[in-house]
Design a protein that fits this description.
Strand content: 25-35%
CATH class: Alpha Beta
Number of domains: 1
Structural class: alpha/beta
Number of strands: 7
Low-confidence stretches: 195-200
Radius of gyration: 16 Å
Order of helices and strands: HEHEHEEHEHEE
Largest sheet: 7 strands, mixed
CATH topology: Rossmann fold
Distance between the termini: 50 Å
């Protein structure tokens, strides 16, 4: 059993019953386009929101319980969002290539070694010119428990030469334990589909 499955017997703190405000703003700004891959989708609120805007969305999560809940939500809401149990570090089996990847709350759970596998896997399933948006806990958030904090430098350093970090902005990640959410980073990353040349 996935260790996160037991947390879905109750209400995990990251499940807020609506999309993250940062995701809503990205969509309103026209930053999310085409076919969308939602990594670590949980019970699917971000994916369902984006599908409601007309995007083809696949949500992937290692927790079978979370995916079951997301699938039932999709049926109840008449949504075309699709959900699949899967490992975000093993994306090779996906049949499509994606224009946008969304990570809301997954990156900060990964070890350093897992981050490298995560980036390599993304490189295999994204189209050239695609966008990656990562919303993760920031090292500006005080130590009260919860997930690993991530520094701006760590977030910048995670990407291989196939990617370019456009921006890393302070954000809030909403959760149940604080109405104002937690300090977070929102990284915007572009995938070029090949290593960037060092020559001008």
């Amino acid at each position: 059993m996935n260790p996160f499955d037991a947390m879905y017997d109750g209400a995990p703190p990251w499940e807020i019953g609506r999309p993250q405000a940062a995701v809503v703003r990205l969509a309103a700004a026209g930053r999310i386009g085409g076919r969308v891959l939602d990594l670590g989708c949980g019970t699917g609120e971000n994916a369902l929101f984006l599908a409601g805007l007309g995007h083809a969305v696949l949500g992937v999560d290692a927790s079978a319980k979370a995916i079951g809940m997301a699938t039932r939500k999709a049926v109840a809401r008449g949504s075309r969002a699709e959900f699949r149990v899967g490992d975000a570090l093993r994306l090779e089996g996906l049949e499509h290539r994606y224009d946008t990847a969304l990570d809301s709350g997954l990156f900060h759970t990964l070890s350093d070694a897992a981050r490298a596998r995560y980036v390599r896997g993304l490189g295999r399933v994204l189209k050239p010119g695609s966008s990656v948006f990562v919303l993760c806990f920031s090292d500006r958030e005080p130590a009260w428990g919860g997930p690993r904090r991530v520094s701006r430098r760590e977030l910048e350093a995670a990407w291989t030469s196939e990617f370019a970090v456009e921006s890393i902005q302070p954000e809030r990640i909403l959760h149940q334990q604080n109405a104002d959410g937690a300090h977070a980073w929102l990284a915007s990353v572009v995938h070029f589909g090949r290593p960037l040349s060092t020559n001008n």
